[in-house]
């Protein structure tokens, strides 16, 4: 993701931070939430990510990287000690427009835990938008990512694609935090060159089925954020967001897959 895109994301955050500062003495989090949830992403297109079993191949749109990227350790199981509904996520990287699998691509995955926390950062800000905006706005993130503040690295991992262009991650279904719709970050690199940074989203009804009925998601209940009012993607409506459609299993992990298309010369 180009630094200009990250900078635009951060500057937008800072704009809200400036407005929020005026009213902070009244009810900083309540008013910030009200402003953030008023985002209207009219015209945003969302479609299901092609599954590995489908004979469909499309170019995957870039999405904002966000401030909490940390280079991930190489591993398949990224859960560590995090509790939540387990999920197996298979990803295939293919070259567009030929739809040929790419071997040797590094796929990085990162997302928050069931309570909305990102590893490497304070766990008391996921549902405190004021703390999040203050951290982003005062840490020099306008020139990149927020510097990690601790050594935790749960729910982060990277793998190299096999001969069929595939990787598999064992993780949990992500929770939600202010001010984002539930999502999973993905980054694709080949020979250390970044080819794609994007995000997967979910059907809001599926999310809330989990958030309202499963521990520990129930602590914060249903998400008030969806792709349609997600502040972070409001400036990227020209890019089509992809929805993961996990298969529900009562006593087994969720199963999800996505075919990711990138442009790469032969």
What does this protein structure show overall?
The chain is globular and about 55 Å long. The strands form two sheets. Strands 1-9-8-7-4-5 form a six-stranded mixed sheet. Strands 2, 3, 6 and 10 form a four-stranded mixed sheet that branches. The protein is 20% helix and 24% strand. The protein is of the alpha/beta class. About 3% of the residues have low confidence. The two termini are 22 Å apart. It has one domain: Protocatechuate 3,4-Dioxygenase, subunit A (Sandwich).
- Largest sheet composition: 6 strands, mixed
How many β-strands, per DSSP?
Answer: 10
Q: What's the arrangement of strands in the largest beta sheet?
A: 1-9-8-7-4-5
Class computed from helices, strands and strand pairing: alpha/beta
Please, how many domains? 1
Low-confidence stretches: 19-26
User: Considering DSSP H and I runs of 4 or more, what fraction of the residues is helical?
Assistant: 10-25%
CATH topology: Protocatechuate 3,4-Dioxygenase, subunit A
Quote the beta fraction: 15-25%
SSE order: HEEEEHEEEEHEE
Radius of gyration: 18 Å
Give the N-terminus to C-terminus distance in angstroms.
22 Å
> Considering the protein shown, what is the CATH homologous superfamily?
Aromatic compound dioxygenase
Mean of residue pLDDT values: 87
Shape: globular
Tally of contiguous helical segments? 3
